[in-house]
Amino acid sequence: MSQQSSDNRYTRGIAEFVSGLTYDAIPSEVKQRVKLLILDSLGCAIYGSRLEWSRILHGVLGKIDSSQACGVWGTSLKLSAPHAALANGTQVQGFELDDGHLRAHIHVGSVVLPALIAIAELRPGMNGKAFLTAAIAGYEVGPRVGLCMNPEHIAQGWHSSATVGVFGAAGAAARGLGLDADKTVHALGIAGTQAAGLMAVQYGAMVKRLHAGRSSQSGLYGALLAEQGFTGIVNVFESEYGGFCTTFSRSQDRFRMAELTAGFGSAWETMNVSLKFYSCVFSNHNALDALRAMQAERPFAPADVEKIVVHGAQVTVDHVGWKYKPQGMTAAQLNLPFCIATLLIEGDVFVDQFPEEAISDPRRMALADKVEVVNDPEITALGGKHRFKLRVEVHLKDGTRMERTVATSRGSEQNFASEQKVVDKFEKLSRNVLSTTQMRELRDAVLGLEKLSDAAELARLLQPS
């Protein structure tokens, strides 16, 4: 084993950014954007509170944890801070509805917000401006780690929100606690050694939903332990043996460490986080938008389809292009052929299109068999920045052939949603859990976060009264 370098310029650089970030240094458009991202994530979590896997998790945690420190969103259940973060992160990511930084391959809100709101509950008095600052710290750090790791990280089989996400959670929690740079270094080092998550979950396992919650919990542990003097890996990114980058990449040319601190304070990755308007993995969205556009020009029915060919990057083929088998809701929402069949048969791909019986719907499965997802070497060669670009060919039985290429989907960073569309999605997801009055109070509290005297008010509004 080679002698290890003590250099931790990137770990230290992240820590200094997190500990030194101030509300006034953040551009107004970034503060406005993060409020919409927060509202969206909370709506996802509220909807997720009643899903089967969430109920199982609530039951298990409720039996082993009698604490009452922090609320589980959308329920009356209270747990310890780490278990609340686990449950709430699971709910945000619970039905493939939540945000994502597409180039960094990380669902940001699901890892940042459960840890940070737990801190707000543990330490009453954090005002809205401090909360926003801490949230933005997390939204800036998490994606930078994802950009460092490149698409090869997920192509290797790691679930990047689960692995990369621990750093976004730790950054937000550390800033929420007001840790200095030295202790933030340790918070990152404690969180990083807990990073885990296997992408084989995509084939149907409920445990995929747990990954974000576990990542948020790990970041929370990192910050709370570091605050008390517990030490972590001080060069968690740089270490040549057992460091995050070298361990989670096949070779050194597969990660770009400079991305970890690039543009801090001038380029805001928060602005590059996208929202979902389909209840499925982001890799499927461009194909669904392409089909909607083609149907608008020349309507066709499922019975008219001879075949559909989707051309994309190899990582997309591996991630969502496999032959569908009815192994669970996760598989249904991640499989591109099945989601295409759902759109063409049901007219949309949102929460109402995925009842439990949809998993083995013979009509959807038959139509999915007509969809092929293939590697396009030109798209693959474009790299991670263009990973989600897709070219869709539709061949109809009457001989008609249509084609559409889509590089940016609805809600993406280049095509971000209006405030009203974000609010509409939040209300649609929340209305069956919260009263109309409470739903509106929560909406207004998030959109006016900078006015809150105590961010713990969010936690109160997230539990049905």
Overall pLDDT level = 95
Count of DSSP H/I helices: 21
Note the gap between the termini.
Answer: 58 Å
User: What string gives the helices and strands in order?
Assistant: HHHEEHEHHHHHHHHEHEHHHHEHEEHHH
- Rg from C-alpha positions? 21 Å
Identify the CATH homologous superfamily of the largest domain.
2-methylcitrate dehydratase PrpD
CATH topology of the largest domain: 2-methylcitrate dehydratase PrpD
Count of distinct strands: 8
Strand order of the largest sheet: 6-5-7-8
Shape: globular
How does the major sheet shape up?
4 strands, mixed
Query: What is the top-level CATH class of the largest domain?
Result: Mainly Alpha
Q: Give the CATH architecture of the largest domain.
A: Orthogonal Bundle
Helical residue percent? 40-55%
Unreliable sequence segments: none
Task: Tally the structural domains.
Answer: 2
Structural class by helix and strand composition: alpha+beta
- Strand coverage percent: 5-15%
List the helices and strands and how they pair.
Elements: H1 9-20, H2 28-48, H3 52-64, E1 70-71, E2 78-79, H4 81-92, E3 100-101, H5 109-122, H6 128-149, H7 152-155, H8 160-163, H9 165-177, H10 181-192, H11 207-227, H12 244-247, E4 273-274, H13 285-297, E5 305-312, H14 314-320, H15 329-334, H16 336-346, H17 362-368, E6 371-375, H18 377-381, E7 390-396, E8 401-406, H19 419-430, H20 436-447, H21 456-461
Parallel strand pairs: 5-6
Antiparallel strand pairs: 1-2, 3-4, 5-7, 7-8
Helix pairs in contact: 1-9, 1-10, 2-4, 2-6, 2-19, 3-4, 4-5, 4-11, 5-6, 5-9, 5-11, 6-9, 9-10, 9-11, 10-11, 13-16, 16-17
